[in-house]
Structures are given as C-alpha cells and as structure tokens.
Specification:
Elements: H1 2-6, H2 16-27, H3 30-33, H4 35-44, H5 48-72, H6 80-88, H7 90-125, E1 139-142, E2 145-148, H8 154-167, H9 171-197, H10 219-230, H11 236-242, H12 250-279, H13 290-296, H14 301-335, H15 354-370, H16 373-400, E3 415-418, E4 421-424, H17 425-450, H18 455-481
Antiparallel strand pairs: 1-2, 3-4
Helix pairs in contact: 2-9, 2-11, 2-12, 2-14, 4-10, 5-10, 5-12, 5-16, 5-17, 6-7, 6-16, 7-8, 7-14, 7-15, 7-16, 7-18, 8-14, 8-15, 9-12, 9-14, 10-17, 11-12, 11-14, 12-13, 13-14, 14-15, 16-17, 17-18
C-alpha cells in the first residue's frame, strides 16, 4: 500500500559521529541544566552527584543491553519497541511503545520548560523581561502539592513548535546543526567546571547526604528517590537506537554511540553537580535554571552570559533529539499499523515523516504549556524504567535462542541458561536497579495521592487506561487485516 511504500524512504545518512552527537545531545541536557536543582533541593542535597553515579551504573547495564540488541538486530526499527516486537511479540512491544510515547513527549516538555527558564534569564540579562503569565505552566507546585492556575507556558509551546518545524526540513541538515550545538554545549560546560571548581566552598558539601526529614526528603530514601529522578537524564539511549533506521552501519555505529554518550555524559553530570552544590546552598537550587543560579555566585557577568547562552543552545539540542525520537517512533508505529497509517507518510524531498513530526510536536507543546517540570520528570522516569526492563528481558530471550548467530557486540559477564532464557549478570542487575527506581517513584506518587495530591497518579492511571484501550483496538485491526 502507498503509506507502507513511502515509509521505507527514510534515508540512511547518519554515521558514528552523528549518532554520538545525537546521544550526547539528548543525554547531556536536562540532567545537567534542570534536574540537579530539583534532586538536590528536595531529595539528596550535595549527594546528587552520587545519585548521578548510581544512575549511570544502572543505565550502563541497560546501555550494554541496548548495544547487543542493536548489533544483533541492525534492521529493527523503533528502538526498544522494534527490539521488543522482534523478540517478545506485539503485545509487550505495544506497551513498550506506549510508555516510550509518554517518555518522549514528557521528556521534551520537561526540557522545554527548563529551556524557558534559561531563555528568560538570558533575555533578562539583556534588559528584556518575559511576563510570568507566559512562562509558567497551568499546573503549578505550591505548598507541597500540585494545583491548577489560570495561565499557560506560551514560551515553551512556541519553542517546541519552532524546533518541530526545523526537524521537518530533513535529518541531514538537522543533524549537522545538532552536532554544532552539542560541541558548543560541551565547550560551555567545560568552561563552567574549570572556572567554578576554583570557587567552590567545600563547607557547602557538608553534610554530603543530609539527614532524613521524613518520606523521601533526604537520607537513604531521598538518595534513592534522586537516583530515580536523574535516571531521566540518560534518556538518550533509545534516541540512538531509534536512529538505527537512518544509520549507515547500525550494527557497528549504534553500540558506539550508546556507550560513548553514556561515558561522556556521566563524567559531565558528576562534575557539574559537584560544582553547582559547591557554589550555592543545595536548598536554594529549587529553580528551573540552577546552573544560571550557580553562575551568579561566581560574580562574573560576562562568563554568566556565555554560560546562559550555551545553556539555551544545549537544551535546544536536547529538545530537538527528543522530538526526533518521538516522531520516528510514531512513524514506526504507523508503519506497523498500530496507529493510523497516515503518520507513516514521508516527504519525498526531505525524507522526513512530516505528519508524524506535526503530531508529536503538537503533543509535546501542549504538555509543555500545561505541566510543571517536577511532575514531568517523575512520569518520564516511570516510562523510561518500564522500557528498560523490557530491553533487559529481550536480551535474555535473544541470547537464549541458540538458532541466532552471535552478535558482533555481546553483553559482558557470564550467565546461566534456563530454558529459552539466558539469565545473565548484567541484564539481571539492569532489571533490579530499574525496579528499585520504579518502586521508589510509584510509592512516592501513591503517598502524594493519599495526601490529596492526585494529579500525578491520576494522569498516569488515565494514560495506562488509554494505552489498554488503544492496544486492544490496534490488535483487533491487525487481526482483521490478516
């Protein structure tokens, strides 16, 4: 059929460097510019740097699993969804896809909200002030709970729409621009760490992990909660695996991009969070732009302007990759007839799935305008952890299939064969760490709901019900079509 034929026109134009830049562009973003402030102020204090280490280890296990799947199934389209469908079947794959849609839409929204905060600071330094009614979300965090307000984050909405328009022009031009933005972002962060390290006040790191104040506020429980929150920062893995459908040599280049992006981003996260909490008391970092606040403590206006500009560019690249991943996932779901096949149509000139980009951009823009970053980060972490667990199970199923040829890249460390499963040390550790993070977030959402703050858990419940309904309809449609 026409839609199916057109959906195969995606051009293979991405090499290893482009994939690495895409991974860094997605991973090194909200995790540095936005989340350290939330995690430090609410959960872990200066130990937020340790939470990044623990999250990197957890996501490192998953990154190795992704790398083996990408090497073994280079032609699979859709990242975690494509791997799940090839190994586990359409049922589990649909739920992976549905949680990835949540992950990408809300991750892009969270980044755009953070980007709005940094853009507001940059313009303020130039004498321009954005009105609060245009930069604050409809749902706000106030007095320990979420509440509705009569406003909309119009700036975030417009930023998402502009980047969606750029993405619709084609991946070759967009990836080149993204590579340049990522290099600029890395240079700015290196400058921040180099200059800031000589001005840190070690006294602000004590106590490194503040004593528990009840619930998930500090202490060991708070540290685990912070790990769950900042795990969102390593979202870029699936963006790279989704890009396999446009990579020239996915079996070789995707594992390189996955592992390289994780290694570089983990080092930057730890160094930036240490400098940040060494410049500003951790309780004061509960703002949408904590890096900008830390730069103010340096009392270097010119450096502050450069870092603010780099932060805007850096978050813009993260938002771009998030929109890219979500639009390509939408394209693959349409190709597989799980959603309307019209979203699989590709523009013959640009090679971009324009309708899929339009739909996902609109969804991201709407959630960015309505929801605050504290709520978005929690829901993104849930979607991320569920997708990661399925990826680990898929690796154990793949390695247990004796009929498949060994992949070029294989998960290290030994394991045992149990029936059709290979119970490896790495995938088991990946599942355990993901379940710990998932349990931490869900238990906190339940506790919030019992206190009367029902919006986060209610949103998640409605989303899961919608996924169940749509999944049943899609299964019937596929069965009917034969």
């Amino acid at each position: 059929m026409a839609a199916e034929g057109q959906s195969r026109i995606l051009h293979r134009q991405l090499g290893p460097f482009s994939l690495l830049m895409m991974g860094i562009g997605s991973v090194v973003g909200a995790g540095i510019y936005v989340l350290p402030g939330i995690a430090a102020a609410h959960y872990a204090g200066p130990a937020v740097s340790l939470s990044f280490v623990l999250a990197a280890i957890s996501c490192g296990f998953i990154g190795l699993c992704y790398a083996e799947l990408a090497s073994a199934l280079p032609e699979a389209m859709g990242g975690a969804y494509g791997y799940s469908r090839a190994i586990l079947g359409i049922g589990p794959a649909w739920w992976v896809a549905w949680m990835l849609v949540l992950e990408y839409a809300l991750a892009g929204s969270a980044v755009s909200v953070g980007l709005t905060g940094y853009l507001s600071g940059l313009l303020a330094s130039c004498g321009l002030t954005l009105p609060g009614a245009a930069t604050n979300s409809t749902v706000i965090w106030h007095d320990g709970g979420f509440h509705l307000a009569g406003q909309i984050n119009a700036v975030s909405l417009c930023l998402v729409l502009v980047l969606g328009l750029i993405l619709s022009r084609g991946i070759r031009q967009a990836s080149r621009a993204n590579g340049a933005f990522v290099l600029l972002k890395l240079a700015v962060l290196v400058v921040f760490v180099s200059v800031g390290w000589s001005h840190v006040r070690p006294a602000l790191w004590h106590p490194f992990l503040p004593q528990s104040e009840g619930g998930f506020h500090f202490g060991l429980a708070g540290l685990l909660r912070a790990v769950a929150v900042v795990s969102f920062a390593y979202l870029g893995f699936d963006s790279i695996s989704i890009a396999a459908s446009e990579a020239r040599n996915p079996g070789r280049d995707v594992p390189f991009g996955l592992i390289g992006a994780l290694a570089i981003s983990a080092v930057l996260y730890v160094m930036v969070s240490l400098v940040m909490t060494g410049l500003v008391p951790f309780r004061a970092l509960d703002v949408a732009s904590p890096v900008a606040l830390a730069v103010q403590a340096l009392a270097m206006p010119s450096l502050g302007f450069i870092l603010q500009f780099g932060s805007v560019i850096g978050l813009g690249s993260v938002l771009f990759v998030s929109l890219y991943g979500q639009s390509r996932l939408c394209h693959i779901l349409a190709y597989d007839r799980l959603i309307s096949e019209r979203f699989s149509l590709v523009d013959p000139k640009s090679g971009a799935p324009v309708l899929a980009i339009a739909m996902t951009t609109a969804l991201t823009a709407l959630t960015a305008a309505l929801l605050p970053i504290a709520l978005l980060a929690d829901l993104v972490s849930i979607g991320t952890m569920i997708g990661f667990v399925v990826i680990a199970v898929a690796v154990m199923k793949l390695r247990g299939d004796a009929t498949r040829a060994p992949a070029r890249f294989r998960v290290p460390l030994p394991g045992l064969r149990v029936g059709t499963l290979w119970i490896g040390i790495v995938p088991v550790l990946a599942i355990v760490t993901c379940l710990v993070n998932l349990t931490t977030v869900l238990s906190d959402l339940v506790a919030q709901s019992l206190r009367g703050d029902w919006i986060p858990l209610g949103f998640l419940a409605l989303y899961c019900i919608a996924g169940w309904v749509l999944g049943r309809r899609s299964a019937r449609a596929i069965h009917k079509a034969g």
